[in-house]
Each structure stands twice: as structure tokens, then as C-alpha cells.
Specification:
- The strands form two sheets. A six-stranded mixed β-sheet has the order 2-1-9-3-4-5. A three-stranded antiparallel β-sheet has the order 6-8-7.
- The chain is α+β, with helices and mostly antiparallel strands and 319 residues long.
- The longest helix has 29 residues.
- It is flat.
């Protein structure tokens, strides 16, 4: 018996999502399981994508409220979706909703048949999960101390609280040591503290090109020049360009990029428009990007002699 019913949603992030929602509703009405499932998966993908966009402020200032609504819609459609839970948990953690954040970090760490966090995300999720548990325990112990007037119990609580405080300090140290992930062009990966990340940017060498993804947004930095703020698609385009290892065309870069803010797929023409805008907005563009013409097309690569490094905050999910 086909019993699933269409549920009302509180927020629809794009016209494309509305279209898929309507298609799913129609598929449910005619008992077409395969089409309804296809539409469900497409909706989840869109909501997760929009959740990250609003969290990072891709096309507008960051909006955690709308980001949470988008991710909540994804979780309503699939409550065990690892990436949706991972992103949602980070937003809850920032709100200091530690018990709920811990629940979603735990769900994020439980792989489905088709989806799972990568090793870095799983490592970070476990660290945050530990910290959530300690913070929840701290609040519980304070509540117990407040409610329990027994003198002997207060002594016992003091012993427990000392252990709890040590655990919290250690978990916070562990969290701070692994708050940023650094990946070099050679494929090496390291975890950085916030202080180490700030030093990396402050003392960047004259041959270093950094792509940085923070909670507040994306940036490009060349040596110690002033960083340039990027939208998400520009960040993704530059990442593809710098990681290519040689000359690459816009059409090859476009393949697999996330959709635009309106939910449309990215074309080679759109990538050329992005390059045109970057060329205009980045004062050191010619110093870092080598461009050659091949017929009526252009190919680009990171200039020889430069070192490329990608650094992102642990809460940022890179496609």
C-alpha cells in the first residue's frame, strides 16, 4: 500500500525546488514510487545546497535562520542524511544548543547505503560530539547542584565537577587544534588551530596562493596582498583551476560544479563570465593565472612557480 503523503513545507528556497515538490506530489498521487523517490532525492540535494549557500552567504549576507530552514527541509525528507545532519549540527552548536547538536553529529556519523561523511568530516564530527557531551554534562551537573540540597551530595558533585571541568578543557583544546583543515597541491592534509590558520595567512610567502573557506565566506589571497572576497561559485571555479595541474578549459571546469543560486546548472558560458568578473575584480589576476588561446577558446592554469593551498573551516563542507 502506497501510504506516504505529501507534507507542507515552511520554506522553499527556489523555483526549481517548487517544481520538484510539485512533481513529487503528482507522483505520490498516482502511486509512482520510482518518480517520487527521484524527486525526493533531487529535493534533498537542493535543500542541502541552499542550506550551505545561506550559511556561508554565497549570494547575500549569511543567514543562519534560512540555512537551518533549508537543512530542516532536507532532514524532513531524509532524517539520516549525513551531510545535512553535519551542517545542521554545526549551526546548532553555534547557537549553543549542545544536546540537539550532539544528536545531529551522531546521526551524521551513521552512514547510509549511499552516503557517508569523508574521513576529515567524520574526525571533526567526533570531536564536536565529544565537546557537546561534555557541555551537556556540565549543564546537567549545575542543575543537580542547584536542586540537591544534601550536604554530602554537594561534596560528591564537587568531585564529579572537577573531572568534568578537566574533560571540558581537554575537549576544547582538541577542538581548537582541529578547527581548520589545510590541503596542499601535493595532496598533503593537516589540521590547524585558529591561531595557526591566522599565522598561515599573515605570513604567506610571495609565491603562495591561498583559497580559504571560513564560516563567514570565501576568500582568495596571494602572498600578503589584500584578500579578495569570493562567492561560492567563483571559489569552486578557482579551486578547479588551481587543482587541475595544467591548462584547463571553462567547459571542463563547469562539469560537476554546484548549481547557481537560482538552481540552474553551470555552463561553460557561465564559467567564462565568472572568469571575466574575476579578471576585473582581482588586482593580481595576471600574476597568478596563465591564459593561452586555443582557437576560439581560452585555457588557463595556475602560473608556474606558485604554490597553491586550500584551507577550510571544519564546519564548511566542500563539494
Amino acid at each position: 500500500m502506497f501510504e506516504e503523503e505529501e507534507q507542507e513545507e515552511s520554506f522553499v528556497p527556489s523555483e526549481e525546488a517548487r517544481v520538484w515538490r510539485q512533481r513529487r506530489k503528482e507522483a505520490l498521487a498516482r502511486r509512482d514510487r520510482a518518480e517520487a523517490e527521484r524527486c525526493r532525492k533531487q529535493l534533498i540535494s537542493l535543500y542541502v545546497q541552499h542550506g550551505e549557500s545561506f550559511k556561508m552567504g554565497v549570494s547575500a549576507p549569511p543567514n543562519p535562520e534560512i540555512a537551518m530552514q533549508c537543512l530542516r527541509q532536507a532532514l524532513d525528507l531524509q532524517d539520516d542524511h549525513p551531510i545535512a545532519n553535519y551542517r545542521y549540527a554545526h549551526l546548532l552548536y553555534k547557537r549553543k544548543a549542545y544536546a540537539e547538536a550532539g544528536l545531529h553529529f551522531h546521526r551524521a556519523l551513521t552512514p547510509t547505503l549511499a552516503l557517508a561523511l569523508n574521513d576529515q568530516q567524520a574526525y571533526i564530527a567526533n570531536i564536536f560530539l565529544v565537546n557537546c557531551g561534555v557541555l551537556v554534562a556540565r549543564e546537567a551537573m549545575r542543575e543537580i547542584a542547584f536542586l540537591n540540597g544534601n550536604e554530602h551530595a554537594e561534596y560528591d558533585l564537587g568531585v564529579v565537577e572537577r573531572y568534568e571541568e578537566q574533560m571540558l578543557v581537554e575537549s576544547e583544546r582538541m577542538l581548537d587544534r582541529h578547527v581548520f583543515v589545510k590541503t596542499t597541491a601535493e595532496g598533503g592534509t593537516a589540521f590547524l588551530s585558529k591561531h595557526q590558520y591566522e599565522e598561515l595567512r599573515l605570513y604567506a610567502g610571495p609565491d603562495e596562493v591561498l583559497l580559504c573557506a571560513e564560516e563567514e565566506g570565501y576568500q582568495l589571497q596571494y602572498g600578503r596582498s589584500r584578500p579578495v572576497t569570493l562567492d561560492k561559485l567563483s571559489f569552486c571555479v578557482l579551486r578547479r583551476l588551481f587543482e587541475a595541474g595544467g591548462y584547463i578549459q571553462g567547459g571542463d571546469i563547469a562539469e560537476g560544479l554546484p548549481a547557481t543560486s537560482r538552481g540552474n546548472p553551470v555552463s561553460a558560458v557561465y564559467v567564462r563570465q565568472i572568469f571575466s568578473r574575476l579578471h576585473r575584480d582581482i588586482p593580481y589576476w595576471e600574476e597568478i593565472v596563465d591564459t593561452v588561446a586555443t582557437g576560439n577558446r581560452a585555457e588557463r592554469k595556475l602560473r608556474d612557480g606558485l604554490r597553491y593551498t586550500l584551507v577550510h573551516h571544519a564546519s564548511v563542507v566542500l563539494a
